[in-house]
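dumping this here so i dont lose it
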């Protein structure tokens, strides 16, 4: 879910930020914005699933699990909102610096999600 959301955000950002005009009667800017919004919803839903719940193992004992901290989840959600939001610290009109701040937030989000995936898979391997 998270990875599909990331792909939709990037795929929607390209036409939303660079293209103008219609394609088969559909405004490319609007279509890109819709794709970015759908990607953002999937991303936030996937990030919220990182909260981890204690799972009962065989015999009712709690299994080892990895739980992402609330602060990191909030930071990832803020990064998604910042990337998708038209309001930025540096407006996108000031090229290339305006796009670089969004790219930095996106890069951090990719790194954080990769880190969480690695930690969770490592914890799952240890529990086996």
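and the seq i came up w/
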């Amino acid at each position: 879910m998270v990875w599909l959301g990331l792909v939709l955000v990037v795929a929607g950002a390209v036409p939303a930020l660079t293209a103008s005009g219609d394609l088969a009667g559909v405004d490319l800017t609007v279509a890109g914005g819709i794709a970015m919004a759908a990607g953002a919803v999937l991303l936030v839903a996937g990030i919220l699933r990182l909260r981890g719940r204690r799972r009962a193992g065989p015999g009712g004992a709690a299994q080892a699990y990895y739980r992402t901290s609330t602060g990191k989840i909030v930071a990832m959600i803020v990064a998604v909102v910042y990337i998708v939001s038209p309001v930025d610290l540096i407006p996108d009109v000031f090229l290339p610096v305006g796009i670089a701040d969004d790219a930095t937030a996106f890069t951090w989000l990719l790194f954080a999600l990769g880190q969480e995936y690695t930690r969770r898979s490592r914890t799952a391997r240890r529990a086996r």
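The two ends are 25 Å apart (CA to CA).
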